[in-house]
Every structure is written in structure tokens, then in C-alpha cells.
Backbone:
């Protein structure tokens, strides 16, 4: 079991900041779901830009805290790696929202519900893993959660292949094919970013178990 008092000392600052970052990542995916499914949702990038900027501030706060805090067992590189992995999630989601708004007139009838479901599932597991760091996450528990993310990532890969097969074997406008492929790539990348963050948590727990 990890001794987090030794890892972080008496301060909860890293717990708080990392949990906040993971929460913003999950919220960005939920905002994307609202953008795609709720006609009354704001049709702009405000929520996505705010989430990404706030997460960037959190990453900077973590960097500043690391400069002021002596970490004994957990290497500062691990904290930085997790912070950077978490930041890439809302950053990628914002890129998806940008393209959706730019091309919304061409995307009438497009269904991204399966992709959003997988992105949300992956982001939810990441948030759980980060929150449970504060609760002295056990090695077996982190393995179960990490395997769940790997499973979601595998499903996202399969969905990507299925979507590309449908895209390349149907009679669609060439511009629409390019747009959809770009969106499929980015949506799969969000799941990949979540997998990367989960791998960092697993690495931290394994190293200190």
C-alpha cells in the first residue's frame, strides 16, 4: 500500500489539483455530449475553452507547487506526467467541438453517440482512479480500473474500424468523408488520452506498492 503521507507530506494540494483536472476532463466530454444531443445547449466553444484554460491553470499550479514541495517517494516526474496526460483530454475535446461547429451544416444526421459513450466511460474511469489516489489506491484495484480503460480503448478501436469501413464503402461527398474521418480520429484520440492517464496512475501505484 502506498504511504501517501510520505509521498505528499501533510498537504493535500496535489490531490486537490489532480482531482480538479480529472473532473474538468470529464466535464468537457459531458459538454460535448450536450453540444451533440441537446439543441438548447449553447452552440459555441465557451464551455470547452473555459475547461481547457482552467485545466492549463491547474497544470501550472502543479508545476509551481512542485517547486515548493519536497516529494520523498513519488517522483515529481510522475506528478507532472499525470497532470500533462489529464490536460490533453479537454484540449482534444475542444478540437472536436471546434470542428463540429465549423461543419455543423454538413453533419446533419451524423451519429456520434457511440463515440461519446466510450469517451465518457473512459473519462469516468480516469476520474475514479485519480480520486482514489487520495484513498490509498490498492494495486489490485488500480489493475481492475486500468483494465476497464483498456477494454474501452479496444472498443473504440473497433468502432473506428467499423466507421471507416462504412465511410469508405458508401457513396458520400468527398468533403464529408474528410470531415467525418477527422472527427472519428479525434474522438478515438480522446479515449487514447484517457488510457494514457490511466497508465500513468497505474505506473505510480505499481512503483510505490
Residues:
Amino acid at each position: 500500500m502506498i504511504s501517501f503521507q510520505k509521498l505528499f507530506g501533510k498537504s493535500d494540494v496535489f490531490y486537490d489539483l489532480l482531482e480538479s483536472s480529472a473532473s474538468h476532463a470529464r466535464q468537457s466530454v459531458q459538454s460535448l455530449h450536450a453540444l451533440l444531443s441537446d439543441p438548447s445547449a449553447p452552440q459555441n466553444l465557451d464551455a470547452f475553452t473555459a475547461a481547457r484554460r482552467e485545466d492549463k491553470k491547474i497544470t501550472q499550479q502543479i508545476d509551481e507547487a512542485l517547486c515548493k514541495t519536497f516529494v520523498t517517494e513519488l517522483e515529481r516526474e510522475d506528478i507532472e506526467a499525470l497532470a500533462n496526460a489529464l490536460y490533453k483530454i479537454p484540449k482534444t475535446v475542444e478540437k472536436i467541438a471546434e470542428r463540429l461547429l465549423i461543419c455543423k451544416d454538413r453533419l446533419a444526421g451524423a451519429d456520434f453517440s457511440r463515440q461519446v459513450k466510450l469517451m465518457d466511460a473512459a473519462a469516468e474511469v480516469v476520474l475514479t482512479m485519480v480520486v482514489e489516489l487520495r484513498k490509498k489506491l490498492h494495486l489490485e484495484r488500480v489493475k481492475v480500473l486500468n483494465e476497464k480503460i483498456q477494454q474501452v480503448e479496444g472498443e473504440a478501436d473497433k468502432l473506428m474500424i467499423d466507421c471507416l469501413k462504412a465511410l469508405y464503402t458508401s457513396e458520400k461527398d468527398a468533403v464529408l468523408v474528410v470531415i467525418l474521418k477527422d472527427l472519428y480520429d479525434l474522438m478515438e484520440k480522446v479515449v487514447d488520452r484517457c488510457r494514457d492517464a490511466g497508465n500513468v496512475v497505474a505506473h505510480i501505484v505499481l512503483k510505490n506498492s
User: Anything to note?
Assistant: Residues 4-207 form a domain with the Methane Monooxygenase Hydroxylase; Chain G, domain 1 fold (CATH 1.20.58.220). The first helix runs from residue 4 to 8.
